[in-house]
Amino acid sequence: MGVPPLAPAQAATEPLAIWSLVLGIISIVGCAVGGSLAGIPAVICGHFGRSKIRKNPSLRGAGMALAGLITGYLAIAAIPVAIAVAIALPAITMAVEKGKATQVLSNMRQIHSVMVQAQLDGTTTGDPKLGWPASAKIKTKAALKQMLVNEQYITASDLDRLGFDNISVANVSDADPADTIFLKAISPEGKSITIMRKSGDGAIYRPGQNISAPEPPRSPAFLE
Prior knowledge:
- There is one protein chain.
- By secondary structure, the protein is of the alpha+beta class.
- It folds into two domains: about 15-90; about 95-205, no CATH class.
- Helix content is about 50%, strand content about 10%.
- It has five helices and four strands, in the order αααααββββ.
- A hairpin with a 6-residue loop joins strand 2 and strand 3.
- Helix 1 (about 15-30) runs antiparallel to helix 2 (about 40-55), helix 1 (about 15-30) runs parallel beside helix 3 (about 60-120) and helix 2 packs antiparallel against helix 3.
């Protein structure tokens, strides 16, 4: 009775090659979600793993080690980029926010000009304590918008384009100082406050920053 032939021994896979591939994948995934330092050990394991495989041809895993090296080096190269983005992102965000606030300020100037003309042309109660537009029997922004459109000072579409609905309008009287706040807008993100003074001068402030302009001394100071 013959002896059955022995099955050929399977070549072992170098553990460092496996670790290099696993760490390389982790490093790439980590970069995608904000950065990872796993690329460094992935490269180390990949180099040592490939060295062992070259010295012992019976070992497998050269492809895994190479893949680990590639992904690891890619992750390492991405670290400076991630750091640069992290440093620049707040400045970019601030610049974008300032650009939006500057546009709001520009829109306010146009609205201010229209409202001043309407104030000069309009009939009031003569009571300076009420302030305008309350002195013209206007108590809400909706009523003010309707009056400006009906009297053909500006079109409804232009008021919408200028973001009129997002701007607070104060009741300002002739007795109020020139720096009294007339128009005010807070950005949707709450990162900036834009004001237009009675005089027509505008300014942009950060939340918490002292606003060097008083609100009208009456209640309510702004239209409802």
